[in-house]
Amino acid sequence: MASTAAEATAEQQQVNGNGDQKTRHSEVGHKSLLKSDDLYQYILETSVYPREPESMKELREVTAKHPWNLMTTSADEGQFLNMLLKLIGAKKTMEIGVYTGYSLLATALAIPEDGTVRDPASCSSYATNRRFSFSPDLGTDEETLLLFWQILAMDINRDNYELGLPCIEKAGVAHKIDFREGPALPVLDQLLQDEANHGSFDFVFVDADKDNYLNYHERLMKLVKMGGLIGYDNTLWNGSVVLPADAPMRKYIRYYRDFVLELNKALAADDRVEICQLPVGDGVTLCRRVK
């Protein structure tokens, strides 16, 4: 993630130690660790963009104009998440860290239209606050509201989410999303107070504050079902995980690097999960709960 437009520009102009690559790929959300930009472009043009839903393309283009666009999920990772959710048959999911909602839209498009029952009082509250929109082909009665909230999405910045919300609404999947603005930990603690939430989530995607990943992990291990998946994004952290501690790094990369290293070490030693770390985007680690 980049916190300013200046950092995003610096990211694209980075020169590595060997001087091999003088510019970084200009595609929005590009975090690929591939050494060849041409190879990454080949993947996008051959396999990703031709199959990218129009709503996701529109959201990607909207996000490209935002000064923090490097925070977004890359198009190839969005395609990967969409396929993964279909393969595991996920119906109830959670996303911690939303930004403009590219990965959230990939999720909403992947999961089927049979949702999870929610609290009627909560439904009324969210309808009043317009925290979601109705699909044109759905009713607005309480029974419909109860049926279709399938994704719990949390982010500290509602403005970024609402930037992408028109694309999500246009895709007809906004009714699946229960968006909560604010820190995720209090929401997770509240969920854990109800035994009915334990082991109830099929999939969780975490792309948020790296210094809290391990705090999220301990809570999510109780909320995700046996055999369910947790995906942690940015686990290769711009390739910094293999750099010497005194190597030149941008400030935000250096600040979070130790937290990412700690997470990777902890996940590798956690016998409650099976793990698979993939060099997709900026690195994503999948954890399958087995205990």
TrEMBL record:
One of its GO terms (molecular function) is O-methyltransferase activity. Residues 1-14 have a biased composition (Low complexity). Residues 21-30 have a biased composition (Basic and acidic residues). One of its GO terms (biological process) is methylation. Keywords: Methyltransferase, S-adenosyl-L-methionine, Transferase. Residues 1-30 are annotated as: Disordered. It comes from the Eukaryota. Belongs to the class I-like SAM-binding methyltransferase superfamily. Cation-dependent O-methyltransferase family. PANTHER family: CAFFEOYL-COA O-METHYLTRANSFERASE 1, O-METHYLTRANSFERASE-RELATED. This is Caffeoyl-CoA O-methyltransferase.
